Amino acid sequence: MISHTLDRGQVEQVLGQVEAVTRAVRGIEAKAGKAHTYFTVIQGQREELARQAETATSIIDRISDMLNRRSDNALNFLVDSLDTVANLVEHLEMTIYDLHLQAAPRQIQREFGPLVVPVAVVVLVVTV
User: Do the Cβ atoms of 102 and 122 come closer than 8 Å?
Assistant: First the structure.
């Protein structure tokens, strides 16, 4: 049988080290508690940010859809307007051809030439 005894200095040294370890463990527990609190706050912020990002994405999608519809409507209107203008110009060309103005003397062409543009503009304004 082995017997060992500790003197008072050794006992106080061991107790001091145990107390130091206990303080260190308590410090670690306190820091772990703070870290848990921070992680909880960060998780809440992340969820809020994700919700806000989804809302922003939804708003942008609605704006994009609205702009697409409006641009389609504008392009359709423009195409229809150009078709109307092209038809009117074609009818004007046919009318001028039917009047045989190309065979008219140059003097008459010069006199009626400036009247063609205002007449075309008036026809466009009235029909469109």
Answer: no
Q: Residue 4's pLDDT is what?
A: 66
How far apart are alpha carbons 100 and 94 in whole angstroms? 10
| CA distance linking residue 100 with residue 77, whole number of Å | 35
pLDDT over 90 at 42, yes or no: yes
Question: What is d(CA 93, CA 62) in angstroms, rounded to the nearest whole number?
Answer: 46
123: left (phi over 0), alpha (psi -120 to 50) or beta: alpha
Task: Calculate the alpha carbon distances from 33 to 26, 36, 80 in Å.
Answer: 10, 5, 70
User: 38 pLDDT band (50/70/90 cuts)?
Assistant: very high
In a 3-state reduction of DSSP, which class is residue 105? coil
The tokens for 41 are: 């706050």
pTM over 0.70: no
Dig out the tokens for 15 from the structure: 């107790």
The Cα–Cα gap between 120 and 104 comes to 20
